[in-house]
Design brief:
mainly alpha; about 110 residues; single chain; elongated; 6 helices
Length: about 110
């Protein structure tokens, strides 16, 4: 798959939407203008790697996600679960994993 600015921009948009942020709020958080963010998301302007790295750190998303790596086959809902998991303390992480294990055993899915 050839990666282009439009693909990467779509991934940036996904990160923003997962965090339920408007372009304006996301742009402010990342110290850029809303217009610049819009151009990145639409793929009309290539985003510098340093900006991707900053987004990656700020939103705890692997840089590889923006290039289609490390998250192949992972749905938006799964990314949201990972984001929520990363926000809780270690004690709760263990309980969350136990809950997911129990749910998967009691209500197995097709996937």
């Amino acid at each position: 798959m050839a990666l282009d600015s439009e693909f990467i921009g779509g991934r940036i948009r996904s990160v923003r939407e997962i965090h339920d942020m408007t372009q304006k709020k996301f742009a402010e958080k990342m110290h850029m203008t809303q217009q610049t963010l819009s151009r990145y998301e639409n793929g009309t302007t290539p985003i510098p790697y340093t900006e991707l790295a900053n987004i990656s750190v700020e939103f705890s998303v692997p840089v590889g996600y923006f290039f289609g790596l490390d998250t192949e086959g992972v749905s938006g809902e799964e990314l949201i679960l990972v984001e929520y998991y990363r926000k809780i303390d270690e004690r709760l992480k263990r309980r969350a994993l136990e809950l997911m294990k129990t749910l998967s055993e009691e209500f197995p899915g097709s996937g």
